[in-house]
Write a structure and sequence with these properties.
700 residues; alpha+beta; Neurolysin, domain 3; 4 domains; five-stranded mixed beta sheet; 7 strands; protease
Length: 700
């Protein structure tokens, strides 16, 4: 029998007395306000834990909704902030497992739980009595006497309920509920299929010459990967970006490059049991249907109602303004690559699997800059120390290793975060740096617990997760310049959570508009290339000597090199995302749509989208970035403009007054203020794209 919320409630009634026997239901304990007990959890614990935690949340919501006392901020909004604590904790651990240590057993659990959790969300937003109490507070005289933060919180609740259909008819609410339930299933299927392609596919390296040109770290990793897979080959290239990008950059074997490239860009697109095309087409169809029920012409229009951009037209205008300069730069770069091909006696036109390889040759010829030479100074552990130092200089934070904290994998390390001088505890930072089977690709930040003050000062817990290739014991892990940028980027998200200083959890940390949340992370990337970081932390892995100034000068000179490529591959994905969600109820054939849209854009044939439609996890594993991948460009306009504030200041990137404004108006305020107003308070004006064009080396 299909499991429903009713089944859960009936089952939970039998098990709630024994709730403390389930480690997932126990309060988090420890000196930091409690931490997840990863050493105790089993996958078999999740279903009974969800049963109990969901019942508790439903009971708590019913008590708020049916309160006979007149709705007030305290008895309605604050109580909503407190309700369902155990469900939040169980859901956090469930999400960590899904992203970091997924297994067939866990995938089966997800298939069962996702529709139930979606149903719970739908019931929450469709609770008439609850909505009426929120609306009553929103429209009350009391609203005028609340603090600015409290008013923002009330507005957020009201806006979210309206956006999710609280004002719909009973029949339309049921339609939305059914769509949400089906979408939850499809999101899980898409993610599972993509992960399967990433886990199962590889390119074997059969002879010693197949390793030619590859950095030592990739050679070792390829051999270790083959050993782990029990393959009778010399090595293999796994189907992740951390393997593929360096191989395409350094391997002189054009045939192998093509093979590796096609493996990677065909994820989810192999017309087999792991194919994602039918799944994503149904996702798009259901999103369009949901938007119409909610009264919007397309999903894009609905989803952008609470973003800074406000409407799809504004995002397309920005993307198109950057697109042509970026494409023009690509054509210039390709012309230089083609000259090298001709000089070497090649008779072929640059193809996508050639781009990185010949771009690197151009970089060396034009700037005398070799990525492998830079990489020798980019030790993962040293750069992590550099991030800590930057956090101390900007925001007065200190990081010290935390002992005896349970982790879900031995590779995960934990640091205590405190305020410099006072030693006041701020929270914990977990770092999970290495790729492994069952871990989704890419890099990201999670908040295990948000900072808030309604139950005393509750410390935040955040994590950064990456997919670097693990080195041999005792050998430092060397990473590329691009990977170092990503490391700082994700740490920017972590700092956004760690610096949070708000009262209510719903307004905490990174809980801002999707097209603003990337701003704190993107601006932090700028500190990687500052002389202070390079001189202190870019140390040669053999000599421990700092990176020479001559090499730093080369890096600065080549700073905008290949920006055409990175901009085109990212913006093409952003435009495709937006146009997919502006297509309304049009039935989408992913292959045809991708081909025709890119042709209309005059997409350079030498580049593919950073995320082709069949593997676009940002927009098909959840609604998170759907019609929102443009956010990276939108936020980079803001971060480029914000960078100018430091460059204009006497103290440069480490100017204390500008850093304090950045903390006061961006990193610490969460969603307590309108993000546009917060930015104006920091900068004194609205951002313009001029700084971005300058930063990327494009001419208008």
């Amino acid at each position: 029998m299909k499991k429903t919320l009713v089944n859960i409630i009936m089952g939970a009634t039998l098990t709630i007395a024994n709730a403390q026997d389930n480690p997932l239901l126990r309060d988090w304990v420890g000196v930091y306000g409690g931490v997840p007990a990863f050493n105790l959890y089993q996958i078999s614990d999740f279903k009974p834990a969800f049963d109990v935690a969901i019942q508790e949340r439903i009971k708590g919501l019913d008590e708020i909704a049916n309160n006979s006392v007149k709705p007030t901020f305290e008895n309605t909004i604050v109580e909503l902030e407190k309700v369902g604590k155990r469900l939040k904790n169980v859901s956090v651990v469930y999400g960590i497992y899904g992203s970091n240590i997924s297994t067939p057993e866990f995938n089966k659990l997800q298939s069962e739980m996702e529709p139930i959790l979606a149903d719970l969300t739908s019931q929450y937003y469709q609770n008439v009595k609850l909505y009426e109490r929120i609306a009553s507070v929103y429209q009350s005289e009391e609203m005028k006497s609340l603090s600015a933060e409290q008013q923002r919180l009330v507005w957020l609740y009201y806006k979210n309920f309206v956006k999710q259909g609280a004002q719909l008819s009973v029949a339309d609410k049921q339609k939305v509920k059914e769509i949400n339930a089906r979408l939850s299933v499809l999101f899980t299927q898409f993610s599972d299929n993509l992960l399967a392609d990433e886990n199962d596919r590889y390119v074997a390296l059969l002879k010693e010459s197949d390793f030619d040109g590859l950095p030592d770290g990739i050679v070792r990793a390829a051999k270790a990967e083959a050993k782990e897979r029990n393959l009778n080959v010399l090595g293999c290239i796994g189907n992740t970006r951390s393997f593929v990008d360096p191989f395409l950059t350094f391997s002189p074997n054009r045939e192998l490059r093509k093979k590796v490239f096609e493996m990677f860009v065909k994820r989810g697109d192999n017309n087999d049991t792991h194919d994602t095309k039918k799944i994503l087409s149904e996702i798009l169809k259901l999103r369009a249907e949901k938007a119409k029920v909610l009264g919007f012409p397309t999903f894009a229009h609905w989803n952008l109602t609470d973003r800074m951009a406000k409407n799809p037209e504004a995002t397309l205008e920005l993307m198109e303004s950057v697109w042509k300069p970026a494409v023009n730069q690509v054509h210039k770069d390709v012309a230089e690559m083609q000259k090298i091909v001709k000089t070497e006696g090649g008779k072929f036109k640059i193809a996508p699997w050639d781009y990185r390889y010949y771009a690197e040759k151009v970089r060396i010829a034009k700037y005398d800059l070799n990525q492998n030479e830079i990489k020798e100074y980019l030790q993962l552990d040293k750069l992590r120390e550099g991030m800590f130092w930057v956090a101390g200089e900007l925001f007065g934070l200190e990081f010290k290793p935390a002992a005896n904290i349970p982790v879900f994998n031995p590779d995960v390390k934990v640091w205590e975060v405190t305020k410099k001088g006072s030693g006041q505890k701020v929270g914990l930072w977990y770092f999970d740096p290495y790729a492994r089977k069952g871990k989704r690709s890419g890099a990201w930040m999670n908040a295990y617990r948000n900072q808030y003050k309604i139950d005393g000062d509750v410390l935040t817990i955040v994590s950064n997760n990456s997919n670097f290739i693990k080195g041999i014991d005792g050998q430092p892990v060397l990473i590329s310049w691009d990977d170092a940028n990503t490391l700082f980027h994700e740490f920017g998200h972590a700092l956004h959570g760690l610096c949070s200083n708000v009262t209510y959890p719903s307004l905490s940390g990174t809980a801002v508009a999707r097209d603003y949340v990337e701003f704190p992370s993107q601006i932090l990337e700028r500190w990687l290339s500052t002389p202070e970081v390079l001189n202190k932390f870019a140390l040669h892995y053999k000599t421990n000597q700092p990176i020479p100034q001559a090499l730093v000068d080369k890096i600065e000179k080549a700073a905008t090199f290949n920006e055409g490529f990175s901009t085109v591959e990212t913006i093409s994905s952003s435009i495709i995302d937006m146009k997919l969600h502006l297509a309304g109820d049009q039935i989408i054939d992913p292959e045809k749509f991708e081909k025709e849209t890119l042709a209309e854009l005059n997409m350079p044939s030498e580049i593919v989208m950073r995320h082709r439609i069949p593997q676009f996890g940002h927009i098909f594993s959840s609604d998170g970035y759907a019609a929102g991948y443009y956010s990276y460009l939108w936020a980079d306009v803001i971060s480029a403009d914000a960078t100018e504030a430091f460059l204009e200041a006497k103290g440069g990137f480490y100017d204390k007054a500008v850093a304090k404004r950045l903390y006061d108006h961006v990193f610490s305020v969460g969603n307590t203020v309108d993000q546009a107003e917060g930015y104006r308070a920091f900068r004194g004006k609205d951002p313009k794209s001029d700084a971005l064009m300058k930063a990327r080396g494009f001419k208008k």
